[in-house]
Design goal:
The chain contains 12 helices and 16 strands. The relative contact order is 0.15. Helices cover 31% and strands 18% of the residues. α1 packs across α6. The protein is globular and about 60 Å long. It folds into 2 domains: 220 residues, DHBP synthase (Alpha-Beta Complex); 100 residues, Threonylcarbamoyl-AMP synthase, C-terminal domain (Rossmann fold, 3-Layer(aba) Sandwich). The structure holds threonylcarbamoyladenylate and magnesium ion.
Length: 348
Amino acid sequence: MVRDLNTLLLDSSAESIAKAGRIIKDGGLVAMPTETVYGLAANALDGSAVLKIFAAKGRPADNPLIVHISDFCDIGKFNLVSEIPKGAKILAEKFWPGPLTVIMKKSSAIPFEVSAGLDTVAIRLPSHPVARELIRCAGVPLAAPSANISGSPSPTTAEHVLKDMNGRIDAVIDGGMCEVGVESTVITLAGSVPRLLRPGGITVEQLREVLGEVEVDDAVLNGLADGAKAASPGMKYKHYAPKARVVLLKCTDDEYINYVNNVSTGSTAALCCDEDIPFLNVRCFSLGKRSEFSVHAHRLFDELRKIDEDNAVEVVFSRLPSTDGVGMALYNRLIRAAGFEVIDLGKN
Ligand code: TXA
Ligand code: MG
């Protein structure tokens, strides 16, 4: 593992988490494991600590942060929102702790830096025991974006975090590989109808089961139209981009294999499934078995980082995922990694 004397690598023992809690109380930055991806945490109620997150990540100042709590009561205890909508209680009961972020109207306790000037705040109660223990030790809610340099794939291991953040942050707690592998589902309750802003491990089908009507924001499956205002500022940036060009193919399994083999050169690769490997004549990065979409989500960012480390790869071909269930989260991340470049093989 890459090490740097400036960034402490902590294990996930109670003493280490307590130490990390003190760093946060003192205004420092700690990367923590969550069930989705690693987060870069600071005291959410301290605007100057939060500013350090933006500097460490190179994050645009207009992109707000998620506030992480360890108990539903923290919302009232720290006076985070102006009002808790009924939908938030329903969602919390069903999906918290877990990979769901809920946007509500903010209170004046939320620093400008956290909400990036919006009148709302995003709140999440993670299920990862280390994240929750860290929030408890710090004694404050934690503002935490994904712990990557802005624009690179989100980190799902402590090693990924160090690769991006070595020397830029005070500490990272190693909690192993994140279970879900893609960032939380983001839903806003600040409008008249609940609206999905970012798909994740909790699917829109699951949200509709408990809330009834849920709209899907246009930016989830498409690029933002020129001049349109992003409901979730993070959606307007080219995200999750590996150095290699990612091209998505809309096709059947046979078409995928034939196309990739036909255009193969020494610098092409496939972001594929286990079943494809015996038939492909290029370097393969597998997301797992074809039918196991949650495994694809779990492995996506790790495989994108591996592609980055392979300097020979200039173009990588992947299937365009289905938008059903957790497929929507994969679709949303991959289409951004590909800069919206899709080839429809059915039309050629
Ligand atoms: O799983 C996750 O959500 C991870 C872990 C660490 O919890 N965090 C994460 O944070 O993915 P970040 O900053 O990488 O993504 C947060 C997204 C951004 O797209 C941001 O624009 C959006 O949530 N967001 C945050 N606050 C918002 C608000 N008040 N209104 C609209 N969008 C908001
Ligand atoms: Mg992020």
